[in-house]
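Need a sequence for this fold. Nothing fancy.
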């Protein structure tokens, strides 16, 4: 009988990836980021461990949305006082100082809603401009990493 492989925390080696959000659609970008944070792109994915990688998103201010979402998508918050419901459209949120929170809000809804999800969100770094302070971690652009990993595995097998 074949047993299902389950990774241990000591076997996990998180990597750092950079994703450029310029011109990308918000929902499609958020699903890709959520999959990387969860680790679903790895063959050693384990649901109860934080097996994902770190993700740095740059140019978060330059995301796109389809249709009339800029005006029709609303963000709600409540002050817990009677009549304290506040609403803002996506256009208003993107016009403010912390427009990168749009991506964080979208990704957070796609991750588990527990402590594990909070740990995964800690691995997400979002920046409005093209610069980030994580050069020391040697991040790799998301699309370019796959061929290098395949070459390393082939060399290890030989």
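Here you go.
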């Amino acid at each position: 009988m074949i047993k299902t492989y389950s990774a241990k925390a000591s076997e996990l080696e998180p990597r750092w990836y950079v994703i450029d959000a310029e011109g990308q659609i918000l929902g499609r970008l958020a699903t890709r980021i959520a999959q990387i944070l969860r680790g679903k792109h790895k063959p050693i994915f384990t649901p109860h461990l934080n097996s994902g990688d770190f993700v740095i998103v740059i140019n978060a201010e330059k995301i796109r949305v389809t249709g009339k979402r800029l005006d029709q998508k609303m963000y709600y918050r409540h002050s817990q006082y009677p009549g304290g419901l506040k609403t803002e459209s996506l256009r208003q949120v993107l016009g403010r100082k912390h427009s990168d929170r749009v991506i964080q809000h979208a990704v957070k809804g796609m991750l588990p809603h527990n402590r594990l999800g909070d740990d995964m969100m800690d691995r997400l770094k979002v920046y409005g401009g093209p610069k980030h302070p994580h050069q020391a971690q040697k991040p790799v652009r998301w699309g370019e990493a796959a061929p290098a990993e395949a070459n390393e595995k082939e060399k290890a097998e030989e």
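For context: Helices lie at 26-38, 69-72, 90-95, 101-108, 115-122, 145-157.
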